Amino acid sequence: MIKIAIAKGRISKVIYELLTESGYTFTENSKRKLIITDDSNSISIIYVKSEDVPIYVENSIADIGIVGKDILREKEYDVFEVEDLKTGKCDLCLAGYKNTNIRKLDNIRIASKYTTQAKEFLKSNNLIGKVIKLNGSVELAPLVGISDFIVDIVETGSTLKENNLEVLEVINTVSTRVIANKVSYKTKFSSITNFISTIN
Ligand SMILES: Nc1ncnc2c1ncn2[C@@H]1O[C@H](COP(=O)(O)OP(=O)(O)OP(=O)(O)O)[C@@H](O)[C@H]1O
Ligand SMILES: O=P(O)(O)OC[C@H]1O[C@H](OP(=O)(O)OP(=O)(O)O)[C@H](O)[C@@H]1O
């Protein structure tokens, strides 16, 4: 059996559909159940917060994990990244009010859940500024004046538009990745690669 940690929001919905389309069946399933096993006992899924997926894989609780590249870029984990599922596509962007030029401001403040990538953006552009960590509703930050800019996920762009903000720069492109525990990838290589080719 392979143990799989999956980010429990958007990503889990897509993966659950892929699994059922690929022939996996789950008799025991309910929205609030955090561990489910398929009827043939070949996979066991644990649903966790996306930031926790690599932690479960690194610590051998799960053999593989399914998580966005945005999360993997925030911290270093001792895992293998083994596949790009090419779903969950979105961009990590610098956004703010229309026509604001970050390179012309003295006191740059960026609000973000993605503090590592926001700091890397400042550094790679030779900019000095403050990164303020927020955990959600990041688009609110410029509206209430906590920051002038945000670094956040943009998919359709409708959240930015509804809040009168715009993409100023695309920092990174994002998609859903499969990561593997380094030992499991050796000991369960064929089950893991078979599983990936089934859902891919
Ligand atoms: N519009 C979007 N907003 C946020 N994440 C998106 C979007 N489109 C694709 N993604 C991808 O989906 C992942 C988030 O999905 P996840 O399954 O963790 O659940 P969530 O509940 O939507 O997120 P969170 O736990 O951050 O609230 C992101 O890390 C990113 O890779
Ligand atoms: O470009 P869009 O299609 O509008 O999608 C982007 C929005 O979706 C995500 O928020 P989410 O709904 O996960 O809520 P959050 O603010 O709590 O992170 C993300 O943080 C943006 O706010």
Automatic annotation (TrEMBL):
<comment type="pathway">
    <text>Amino-acid biosynthesis; L-histidine biosynthesis; L-histidine from 5-phospho-alpha-D-ribose 1-diphosphate: step 1/9.</text>
</comment>
<keyword id="KW-0028">Amino-acid biosynthesis</keyword>
<keyword id="KW-0547">Nucleotide-binding</keyword>
<comment type="similarity">
    <text>Belongs to the ATP phosphoribosyltransferase family. Short subfamily.</text>
</comment>
<dbReference type="GO" id="GO:0000105">
    <property type="term" value="P:L-histidine biosynthetic process"/>
</dbReference>
<dbReference type="InterPro" id="IPR018198">
    <property type="entry name" value="ATP_PRibTrfase_CS"/>
</dbReference>
<dbReference type="GO" id="GO:0005524">
    <property type="term" value="F:ATP binding"/>
</dbReference>
<dbReference type="InterPro" id="IPR024893">
    <property type="entry name" value="ATP_PRibTrfase_HisG_short"/>
</dbReference>
<keyword id="KW-0328">Glycosyltransferase</keyword>
<dbReference type="Pfam" id="PF01634">
    <property type="entry name" value="HisG"/>
</dbReference>
<dbReference type="GO" id="GO:0003879">
    <property type="term" value="F:ATP phosphoribosyltransferase activity"/>
</dbReference>
<keyword id="KW-0067">ATP-binding</keyword>
<keyword id="KW-0808">Transferase</keyword>
<protein>
    <recommendedName>
        <fullName>ATP phosphoribosyltransferase</fullName>
        <ecNumber>2.4.2.17</ecNumber>
    </recommendedName>
</protein>
<keyword id="KW-0963">Cytoplasm</keyword>
<dbReference type="InterPro" id="IPR013820">
    <property type="entry name" value="ATP_PRibTrfase_cat"/>
</dbReference>
<comment type="subunit">
    <text>Heteromultimer composed of HisG and HisZ subunits.</text>
</comment>
<dbReference type="InterPro" id="IPR001348">
    <property type="entry name" value="ATP_PRibTrfase_HisG"/>
</dbReference>
<keyword id="KW-0368">Histidine biosynthesis</keyword>
<dbReference type="GO" id="GO:0005737">
    <property type="term" value="C:cytoplasm"/>
</dbReference>
<comment type="function">
    <text>Catalyzes the condensation of ATP and 5-phosphoribose 1-diphosphate to form N'-(5'-phosphoribosyl)-ATP (PR-ATP). Has a crucial role in the pathway because the rate of histidine biosynthesis seems to be controlled primarily by regulation of HisG enzymatic activity.</text>
</comment>
<feature type="domain" description="ATP phosphoribosyltransferase catalytic">
    <location>
        <begin position="49"/>
        <end position="199"/>
    </location>
</feature>
